[in-house]
Amino acid sequence: MNDARFLDEVAGTLAGLPTVEAVTLGGSRAQGTHRPDSDWDLAIYYRGEFDPQSLRDLGYEGEVSEIGGWGGGVFNGGAWLRIAGRPVDVHYRDLDVVAEQLARAESGEFHIEPLMFHLAGIPSYLVVGELAINRVLVGSLPTPGYPEALRMSAFRIWADRAALTLSYAEHNHAPRGRAAQCAGLLVVAACEYAHAILAARGAWVTNEKRLLDRAGMRGVDDTIAGLTGQPGVLTEAVAVVRALGTTTLRSMHGLAASSAASGSADDAGVGAPGGAAAHRSTKA
Q1: Burial 47-83 (b: 16+ CB within 10 A, else e)
Q2: Which candidate among 22, 231, 251, 252 keeps its CA 20 to 30 Å from the CA of 84?
Q3: Which residues of the chain have pLDDT under 70?
Q4: DSSP alpha helices (H): ranges in the chain?
Q5: Start-to-end Cα distance in the chain
């Protein structure tokens, strides 16, 4: 069975499950960056209640979680399957939750929640980004742009978190030679900077796999590789990651230095997207 027929048949089968109204293809295959062995990432959009047993009853090889089985929140579960010899991930997407997060994103509101395998956690607007970039196979879904209000708020919140994460590493772990804890926080901060950078660009993020590359933060690898348990080395590493993040932010068109109050994202030496003009537009 060729890939096109495979995708058509699986999408049609998933769309036939009770309460499912739409099916999408996401991940690298939707964006044309996949390898021959890449997973097939499919999402089923349901309204009301979805019973995972209906997916189990299809008889596919693999593991099917309950609703909320992957930690709850917006990324509320799914399945790891093997279908016709191909690895397939199925994600559950509640249409009411997606609509709520779309409305929040348009107002510049979101929250960050933990998710297995994601170092910095995921923003609730992840499910909005999926609408924007995934390929609809069955049904109809909105295709939102990146809201200006979200661009502003996400930039500030993620940059603020990066600055605070590095400050904690600098003052609590580096002086005591705690290399493991320091390394962990450095990578988390790099991911937080990357989220800030991509938010400022108005670029959606749906996972962390290529997050550092897309944001120009891949240089953190060399810093992590050179860590030792010496306090001086750890303190210098904090400074290097901070400089990498803030320099990347400053280099972007429309980002201006600012002197906001201590403890904000601007304390790291960067301002909001669009500079003063952007501030005026949000107050209008």
Answers
A1: eeebebeebeeeebeeebbebeebbebbbbbbbebeb
A2: 22
A3: 253-284
A4: 3-15, 27-31, 53-56, 95-106, 126-133, 148-168, 179-201, 211-215, 220-225, 231-251, 275-283
A5: 56
pLDDT value of position 254:
54
State how far the Cα of 101 lies from the Cα of 213, in Å rounded to an integer. Answer: 26
Q: Reduced to 3 states, what is the DSSP secondary structure of residue 262?
A: coil
pTM: 0.87
Q: Which residues pair with 123 in a beta bridge?
A: 112
pLDDT at position 12 is: 97
**Residue 255, token pair as written in the block:** 């980002």
Q: List the one residue out of 71, 68, 7, 72 whose CA is nearest residue 41.
A: 7
pLDDT of residue 264: 37
Give backbone dihedrals phi and psi of 162, rounded to 5 degrees, phi first. -60, -45
Chain Cα centroid distance, residue 124: 9
Q: Tell me the C-alpha distance between 22 and 143, whole Å.
A: 13
Residue 258 tokens read as 């600012």
| Cα angle for residues 127, 143, 123 (degrees, 5° grid) | 20
Local structure of 83: helix, strand or coil: strand
| Structure token digits, residue 72 | 């709850």
**Domain 3-138: which CATH number of 3.40.50.2000, 3.40.50.300, 3.30.460.10, 3.40.50.150:** 3.30.460.10
Half-sphere exposure of 15 (CA within 13 A, CB side): 16
Packing angle of the helix pair 179-201, 148-168 (nearest 10 deg): 160
Are the CB atoms for 241 and 235 separated by under 8 Å? no
Longest dimension (CA), the chain: 60
| Contact (Cβ atoms closer than 8 angstroms) between residue 152 and residue 108 | yes
C-alpha to C-alpha distance for 77 and 180, rounded to whole angstroms: 31
Closest CA to 190 of 172, 165, 171: 165
pLDDT, position 3:
86
Task: Write the Ramachandran bin of 70: left for phi over 0, alpha for psi from -120 to 50, otherwise beta.
Answer: alpha
